[in-house]
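User: Could you go from structure to sequence for me? I need the amino acid at each position, not a summary. Structure tokens:
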């Protein structure tokens, strides 16, 4: 199916575009009143994720409200370990938790990658339904957590400020961590390829916790597995090339290494100047980013000023997808998102 608006895809391939495309991480979320109404109907977050009809509904909500250049399937990065039998649940106000975190060596040895067409079928059904609802208007992004980021939750059983148990295993029993990461890499590869086959037109890897690692540990325990996944992804579907994006939060020191994984675009958090990042990676990859999400809590005038600053830092030439440096805050006024999108859309051509 030919896309009416393929600006996002062309930017990822560093092709000329009439303007800088924009989408937002967590663009379907709690800052939107319509999302909160749908979530209330679902009962809870996980029930919403596992209901393709409702997940499709919330995926489409921000596109009905804003002039966005891509949709991202509504799901969660922890669907894979949930499908492995670790028992994902969400405690109110506490974030995700697992009933059965990986604590024993035999549990790690017995770990295996789930079949996404069976155990994650609800996500694939959502992808198919969203594609139908989009009707070729804008592309659909599929995604997964990175092997290391998934392992952080699988070992700790919950979010953490330092993931001490993970780091203890990394230094004391690296063989066990590598076993988890190898299974996760296979699971993520299968999952992303299944999303592509179901209709995802671009895919993104969220390496949320890779940035807390030392330089050597990042390359060994996170990036090596990301590179393996990128090398095993389907590169074409429905007669179209399928681009990939890698985002390591806190990964500004490793941009060249991330670009060398074979991905088409590198996501940036807000701690790095996008112009400096562009100078470092050159023409190898597109860049996605990178406004501080907290800017959206300020004022429409400040939002527009900061957006223009980032666009000016990137400068002329192709290969920029505007985004936040992390997910949008639930406290963001929806009208501030409108101000951001209009500022980016109105900035002008980026194809010289």
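Assistant: Here is the amino acid at each position, in order:
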């Amino acid at each position: 199916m030919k896309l009416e608006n393929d600006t996002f895809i062309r930017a990822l391939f560093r092709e000329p575009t009439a303007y800088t495309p924009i989408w937002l991480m967590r663009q379907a979320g709690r800052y939107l009143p319509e999302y909160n109404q749908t979530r209330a109907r679902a009962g809870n977050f996980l029930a919403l994720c596992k209901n393709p009809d409702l997940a499709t509904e919330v995926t489409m909500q921000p596109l009905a409200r804003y002039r966005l250049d891509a949709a991202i399937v509504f799901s969660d990065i922890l669907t894979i370990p949930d499908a492995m039998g670790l028992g994902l649940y969400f405690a109110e106000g506490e974030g995700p938790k697992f009933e059965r975190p990986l604590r024993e060596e035999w549990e790690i040895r017995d770990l295996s990658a789930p079949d996404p067409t069976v155990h994650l079928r609800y996500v694939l059904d959502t992808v198919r339904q969203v594609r139908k609802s989009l009707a070729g208007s804008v592309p659909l992004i599929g995604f997964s957590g990175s092997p290391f980021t998934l392992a952080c939750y699988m070992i700790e059983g919950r979010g953490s400020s330092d993931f001490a148990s993970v780091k203890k295993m990394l230094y004391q029993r690296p063989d066990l961590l590598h076993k988890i990461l190898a299974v996760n890499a296979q699971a993520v590869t299968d999952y992303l390829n299944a999303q592509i086959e179901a209709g995802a037109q671009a895919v993104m890897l969220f390496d949320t916790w890779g940035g807390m690692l030392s330089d050597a540990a990042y390359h060994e325990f996170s990036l090596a597995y990301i590179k393996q996944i990128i090398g095993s992804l389907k590169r074409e579907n429905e007669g179209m090339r399928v681009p990939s994006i890698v985002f390591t939060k806190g990964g500004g020191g490793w941009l060249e290494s991330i670009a060398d994984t074979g991905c088409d675009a590198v996501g940036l958090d807000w701690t790095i100047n996008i112009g400096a990042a562009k100078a470092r990676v050159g023409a190898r990859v597109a860049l996605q980013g990178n406004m501080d999400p907290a800017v959206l809590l300020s004022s429409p005038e400040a939002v527009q000023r900061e957006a223009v600053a980032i666009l000016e830092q990137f400068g002329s030439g192709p290969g920029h997808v505007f985004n936040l440096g992390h997910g949008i805050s639930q406290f963001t006024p929806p009208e501030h998102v409108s101000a951001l999108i209009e500022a980016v859309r109105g900035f002008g051509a980026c194809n010289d």
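One structural detail worth keeping in mind: The first strand starts at residue 71 and ends at 72.
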